[in-house]
Amino acid sequence: MHPAKKLPSSEFAARTGRLNGILRRHRLDALIIHSEVNRYYFTGFTSSSGVILAERGEEPLFFTDFRYLTAARKEVCSMPAKMLWRAAEQRQVIAALGCSWKRVGYEGSLSAARFLELQTTLPDVEWIDISGDVARLRAVKSIAEQRAMRAACAANDQLFAAVVEKLHADMSEWEISTLIRHQCSVFGQEPSFDPVVCVGRNAAECHHYPGLTRLRNNRALLLDIGVKLDRYCSDMTRTLFYGTAGNEFKMIHQIVLDANRKAVERIKPGVSCEHIDKTARDYIERAGYGKYFGHGLGHGLGLDVHEQPGFTPGDKTVLVPGMILTVEPGIYLPNRCGVRIEEVVLITSDGCELLSSAPTCQLNNILRAG
Predict the structure, then answer these.
(1) Domain boundaries, the chain
(2) pLDDT tens digits along 40-63
(3) Which CATH architecture has domain 9-138?
(4) For residue 1, what pLDDT is reported?
(5) How many CB atoms lie within 10 A of CB 56?
(6) pTM of this prediction?
(7) I need a labelling partner for 4 at 20 to 30 A (CA). Which of 92, 127, 332, 341 fits?
């Protein structure tokens, strides 16, 4: 597998231009971007340190330290790259830069210590959280991002098939998790998140941490996996059964699958996220398992595995073309069994496109000998 590729430079130039929209919308004198993922979103450059500074009427600037400066000046096309000030000089530099600022945008994810330092350095500034503005920009994927997400989801389908092919009796959850991590380097660059591997009754724990429970006949296996390809995340859950599935498992699996499909059928532009969540939630409730579905139906997906918006109760975001979200209903019966089925969907002009395509029903399979 190749090292991560980045999108065309025109993508980052367009995103940088949208920073001016945030400045105008909030009547800001400046805005500061600190987080690594958002620095990448606007520059196309990955580094462990750096700051984007955009001032009203001025060209945005990317500051990074000595370790990255030469590379940044070669790779960042959306804005000039400058030497980042030393930590010991932080207050002096910020005080000089911000001597005329009155309203400044910042990311709400900034650490309390760093935010307090900014407040202390510029005590007369009104600080405006622009996290939501940036999240809304990232929520709608460009055509190039949509292509990247299709590729990541296709790679995840291949990852799933390869993992299932290599499963055998007596493997522990931890061994299966290790196998998934190894295969991620074959089909992408790294996992999107720590794999969730649940054997048997452990699947009743939504995010069970892999342990030493072993895969054997007549046990279910829940796999929640994702691979990063060219920095974009995929995410998918399938619940399998090895041996002869009992009636309860088959029934719950079918209810979850039907809830998933009914939600997907309702997805289109103009519909609210909470309505899609309610579609699946109501179906599971009518089947008698409402109290066993305790998480949101899905979340946005992109450079991060959890982005805005989300298919959750109370999220009134209206779907628009270009958004990419997961749809993952589940039923979890404590100390008995659990089933989750997760797809990735792209909102299109008249509905949605299913980006994940791995089989959703693999029951009564016979394990290979260990």
Answers:
(1) 9-138, 141-354
(2) 999 999 999 999 999 999 999 999
(3) 3-Layer(aba) Sandwich (3.40)
(4) 78
(5) 14
(6) 0.95
(7) 341
